Amino acid sequence: METVIRYVLAIFGSSGFILLIIFLNPQKAEIWASIFWKLLRTFFKKAEKKYIQHDIQGRINDYNRILGKEVKNYEPTGIKISWIEESERQTSFFKDNAIIIRLRKSENQNRNFVFASLTFISQVVLKKAKRYISPSQKESIDLYVAKKLFAKEKPEVIDQFVNDFLIPKTENNKKVSEYFDKYSLIDKVGLFWPVFIQELIFLGNKVFGKRREDIIVTEVNGLVEFLKTYSERELGDQKNKLTFNGRYCRFGIMIVAKSSKVRTGDLKPYLKYMLKLLNVGIENIYIIGSSQQNNEAFMRNICLAAEAELNVQCFYEKEYSAHIMIQGKRTKCDNLLIIVRRKDLQYHYDSEDQAKLSK
Amino acid sequence: MDKKEIKAVHDDDLETLLSNLNILNDVKSGKKKCRFCGCVIDLDNLEAIFPDSGDIKFVCSNPECLKQFYLFLEKENV
Known about the structure:
The complex is a heterodimer of chains A (359) and B (78). Chain A has 359 residues and is α+β, with helices and mostly antiparallel strands. Helix content of chain A is 59%, strand content 16%. Chain A has helices at 2-24, 26-40, 45-70, 90-96, 109-124, 135-153, 158-172, 174-188, 192-206, 213-231, 259-264, 268-279, 293-309, 351-358, and strands at residues 77-83, 100-103, 243-245, 250-255, 284-290, 312-326, 329-342. A five-stranded mixed β-sheet of chain A has the order 3-4-5-7-6, sandwiched between helices. In chain A, helix 2 (26-40) runs antiparallel to helix 3 (45-70). Chain A is globular, with a radius of gyration of 24 Å. The mean pLDDT of chain A is 85. The longest helix of chain B has 14 residues, at 63-76. Chain B contains three helices and three strands; from the N terminus they run E-H-H-E-E-H. A two-stranded antiparallel sheet of chain B has the order 2-3. Chain B has 78 residues and is of the alpha+beta class. Chains A and B meet through helix 3, strand 1, helix 4, strand 2 and helix 5 of A and strand 1, helix 1, strand 2 and helix 3 of B.
């Protein structure tokens, strides 16, 4: 990397280097631009609007870029704030059929950021899956995603968010409050994005036409409960069920591995277990284990062998931090997750497919 | 990355926008109501406006109404 920087500096000079940084990090550049406009806003009215706009766009788009790496098949959609022209008239207002949100003076930028983010999240995150899930499931997911966005991009707005949105909404709706609590537990073991949201993305991509919303809502409830139970699992506990075999979501978690098994390098028991899962209709297998070097290599070997011997493909892998229960206490560990998917996935295109589900 | 456009009006331009839409006087005289809770809309509590069935609708700053507003956006796919 140092060599690359030296070459760029030699060929293009420092201004070229800055342009390269901007090119590689457009979202960060937008956040820097917002700081520039913030300094000028007391002198120019235009700078005030530029600050509000770039601060919101830069941070939300930066977070979206991160989400694109957290979840496979997540299609990141950015935000673009367009200020209403002074010439906006009734005819163009109705013609565009667009909502107009009010953004307050920059002294209230925390409030602006919270409002714009929630508007954006409600329209963009899990757009497909949200067609089928219940209002409290949708709302709780939006609130939880918003909380994570704020914690990452602008922690100073958390108070505003909690007081203006989270407390009023969770106090009025017990279901939302319960879901929110469960997502938080699931997130502690690092599975909110790579398993829960991932499964909802798979769900949104495989259901079409006339669908059974009632079944889907019940199934998402089951999915949340399953992952919550998993999140409370003690290390080494064999009692918990590690498969979720619903009508739409069918997946299993396979934990790899005991150090004795890694030492012997015997892949057969794992392949046998994966075959057993596939035979009962499981579509996605989440292989989870420590990201320590030996274990990581062993997990990858399992995937390669599975691709060669079973009807599956290694779909995605990511490293993440989990806080798992060890002797009743949450303990941080670094994990690797590999998603293995069967190749012959079942899609639900029409009413005939849907009818099969009721049987 | 595809981008979702969100239209916004700044505090300083709010009255001009409402005037251009011929609704400023109605808002100032308390004739406009929130689409979700029915409370009177004024220049302080107005959070969003949107077209609905040929009319201009308003959303107030009550968190419950904002919740309804987000669900409306998802449902209508605005």
